[in-house]
């Protein structure tokens, strides 16, 4: 069962990474676009603390590389998507390490709810094309 969960989590990570692979103007002066954005990999070969560090690093990189255009609504959404993905990645990490039914249920709920919210934000971006503004 643990192997099946790990396999599902790895597949979800790859799907989410593809959704984050769009680039425009990026947040922060030091946020140079990278050729390959970092991807979180939920692996039972790492301790929980390392998984959480990885999830935070990927989230931070995603937020710094969020395509920004100076329109508050747009910029909010583009930064919130990697933030929500960070919550998903952290939930995946705890699913690999806990058997506590309440925590597992909470983590599964976070994965489902945050993915729905990411999908809503992606749809919003598609329906609200914005012109780039000066900051």
From TrEMBL:
Q: Which Pfam families match?
A: DUF305
> Which keywords belong to this entry?
Signal
| First and last residue of the signal peptide | 1-21
Q: Could you tell me which InterPro entries the record lists for this protein?
A: DUF305_CopM-like, Ferritin-like
On the tree of life, the source organism's domain of life is Bacteria
What residue ranges are annotated as transmembrane?
A: none
- Domain (DUF305): residue spans on this chain: 73-133
This chain's protein is named DUF305 domain-containing protein
């Amino acid at each position: 069962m643990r192997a099946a969960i790990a396999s599902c989590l790895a597949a979800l990570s790859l799907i989410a990474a593809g959704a984050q692979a769009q680039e425009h103007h990026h947040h922060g002066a030091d946020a140079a676009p990278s050729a390959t954005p970092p991807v979180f990999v939920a692996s039972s070969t790492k301790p929980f603390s390392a998984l959480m560090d990885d999830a935070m690093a990927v989230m931070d990189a995603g937020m710094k590389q969020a395509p920004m255009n100076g329109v508050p609504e747009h910029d909010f959404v583009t930064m919130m998507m990697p933030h929500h993905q960070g919550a998903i990645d952290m939930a995946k990490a705890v699913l690999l390490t806990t058997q506590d039914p309440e925590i597992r249920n909470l983590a599964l709920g976070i994965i489902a709810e945050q993915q729905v919210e990411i999908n809503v934000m992606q749809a919003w971006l598609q329906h609200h094309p914005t012109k780039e503004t000066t900051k």
